[in-house]
Amino acid sequence: MKNIIKYPAYLQINKKMIPYQPFADHLKSIGVLASPSELHAQASAVLCVNKTASFELWLKQMINEYCVENPHDPNFNMVMSAVFDYAKDQLGKDDYSYQLLLPQDNSSLANRVSVLSEWVATFLSALGTTGMTDNRLSKEGSEFMRDMEQIARIENDEDEVTGEELDFIEITEYVRTGVMMLYIELNTSAVHSQSIN
Predict the structure, then answer these.
(1) Contact 181, 140 (CB under 8 A)
(2) What is the dihedral of CA 41, 46, 47, 49, to 10 degrees?
């Protein structure tokens, strides 16, 4: 008899991209009061600061950060592991395949803008929690962080965002490439500082 505990079907089908809504529904069903974007942003931030960060350390932070009904549920651990591995795998590749975990294109633009803003705000907050300081950043890195603070404050007004699809795509791409730059920059500076000590 096969083990009853296994990854949900939506995580088995496509390792390259986790579908947002099935994941959001599954998180609710196992009592996790966090969105897929929040979890992905948290994992991405931790890995940007330290690419060797362990899943166990991140999981402990997530349990402390969010209200989790049953943190010892094996299903919860497997789903969280899938998110962490997804972010780690994509950030670690040199093919620039890293993607933000956001709702699909069939979701309303207003919803996608709102979730992008939430992703960015969570990412910035998680960077602060991990102890990242601006003095580790290049001029470009500091500029990116300032831009991210503005993106985190994007207003979610249905009337204002209608018809702004191109802007949304450009902003998402800017965030995506900026996070990859940050990952390389912070992890390279960490290796350098260790080598001179």
Answers:
(1) yes
(2) 120
Cα separation, 85 vs 38, in Å, equals: 15
> pTM, whole model, 2 decimals?
0.84
What is the DSSP secondary structure assignment for residue 106, as one 8-state letter?
T
Query: Tens digit of pLDDT for each residue in 157-179?
Result: 555 555 567 788 999 999 999 99
- Using alpha carbons, select from 130, 64, 47, 24 the residue that is nearest to residue 55: 47
Distance separating alpha carbons of residues 68 and 94, to the nearest angstrom: 34
Specify whether the CB–CB gap between 132 and 46 falls below 8 A: no
Alpha-carbon span 32 to 186, nearest angstrom: 30
Q: Write the pLDDT tens digit of every residue in 114-143.
A: 999 999 999 999 998 887 877 778 999 999
Three-class SS string for 15-56? Answer: CCCCCHHHHHHHHHHCCECCCHHHHHHHHHHHHHHCCCCCHH
Give the pLDDT of residue 16: 59
CB 103 within 8 A of CB 111: yes
Q: Name which of 134, 161, 164 is nearest 149 in CA terms.
A: 134
CA distance 177 to 105: 19
- Cα–Cα distance between 40 and 32 in angstroms, integer? 14
Dump pLDDT digits (tens) for 6-38: 545 555 444 556 788 888 988 888 888 889 999
Q: Which residue has the tokens 């943190």?
A: 71
